Amino acid sequence: MSIKHICLIGFGEVGQCFSIDLLNANIAKVTAWDTKFTDKDSLPSRALACCAVDAGNNGHDAAKGADIIFSAVTAAQTVEAAKNVVAGLKPGTFYLDINSASPNVKKEAAEIINTAGGYYVEGAVMSPIAPKRLATPILLGGPHASEFYILAQDIGLVGSSVFSGDYGKASAAKMCRSIIVKGMETLLSESLLTARQYDVDDMVLMSLDDLFPGLDWETLAPYMISRCIKHGGRRAEEMREVANTVADVGLDPLMSAACAKSQDYLGTRANEIASTDMRAMLNALIKNI
Questions:
Q1: Of all helices (H) and strands (E), which one includes residue 98?
Q2: Does residue 272 contact residue 284 with C-beta atoms inside 8 Å?
C-alpha cells in the first residue's frame, strides 16, 4: 500500500512534531484538524501557518481520502475525535489512536472507527515525543496492529512495535506507567515546594542522590516540575483516565486521583513561570500560593 495522504486530528505538540517529520519523509499530502483552528491566534493556528499542512474545515473534511489518520487529541476528546472523522473515512483507512486514554475509552473509539469501515489501531506512546519524534516508542494494539506495523516503518514510525492483538492492553500499559511517571512529577513538586519554604531543598535533593544514585536530581527535578506547569491540564486529563483504568479493575485510585488534582493546579500556573531555574521556578510558584 502506497501512503500518499496522512491526516492529523489534533495539532498540538505531537501533531506539529509529527507533521514536520511526515513532510520531510515526502508524504505527498498532510492534512490536519484541531478545534483550536477556529481561533486564528491559537498556538495550533499559528503553527499551521508556518508549515505546508492543509487544514480541513472540520475533522471529517481533513480526513477525507486519507490513507492513515493519526488521532493526537487530549484524553477527554478521544471518542469525540473518532466520531468527527467518520463522515470522511474511506474504507480501509488506518486510524492510529495515540491518545492517553483508558482501555475502555480506546475500545469505544475502536468500535466507532471499525463500524465505519476503518481499521482502528490502538497506540500507546511510551516516552516523551522529544527527542525521537516520529521514531518515539509506540506500542500498537488490536487486530489491525500487525498490518499497520509494516506501513509504520515506511513512514518513519520505526520505534513502534506490535504489543497485543487485543484492544486495551497497550493503553493499560501506558496508564500504569503514568501512575509512576506523573506521580513522581507531582510528588517532586509537592516535596520541593514545601522544602523550599523551609529552606531545606538542597538537603532533600542531596538525600535523593544518596537514595537513588545515578540520577541527576538537580537536573531531573526542575524538568519534571516544568512539565507539570507546561502540560498540567493535559496531564490531569490523562490521570483522570488513569484513575478510571484503576477503578475499572475494582481498585480505589487514591494516588491517581490526587495526582490529577495536583497536575490540574500546576497547569493553571503556566503563565506565571518563565524561568527554567528550579529555585526561581519554586519561588514564583510559592509567591502566589
A1: none
A2: yes
Q: What is the mean pLDDT of residues 17-41?
A: 94
Domain segments of the chain as ranges: 5-166, 171-287
Q: What local confidence, expressed as pLDDT, does residue 2 receive?
A: 85
- Euclidean distance between the first and final Cα of the chain, in Å? 56
At 284 the pLDDT is 86
Per CATH, the number for 5-166 is: 3.40.50.720
H helices within the chain, ranges in order?
13-24, 43-48, 59-63, 78-85, 103-115, 145-154, 169-197, 201-211, 217-247, 254-267, 278-287
Q: What is the largest CA-CA distance in the chain?
A: 62
Distant-in-sequence, close-in-space partners of 180: CB < 8 Å, separation ≥ 6: none
What is the distance of C-alpha 277 from the center of its chain?
25
